[in-house]
Amino acid sequence: MDLERALLCKVAKVGKEKQCVRLQLSVLDWNTPSRDFYAAKGAQDLTDSEGWHFIRFDGHNLDNLANEAQKD
Description:
Elements: H1 2-17, H2 32-40, H3 46-49, H4 59-71
């Protein structure tokens, strides 16, 4: 996890330099090593505490949304 730690720390540093107030990640539920790693660094799992769900539009559904914007 040395590379993962180095990358995470660098992203956090650049974010703070650019006045970012949070770092948000998506992690699959089966990826317990990464989830444990982030938790050990102080990350909060918002799935349970705040009920967040990550939503994605891709492929045909993304095309449909883009086409709706063109009609406006």
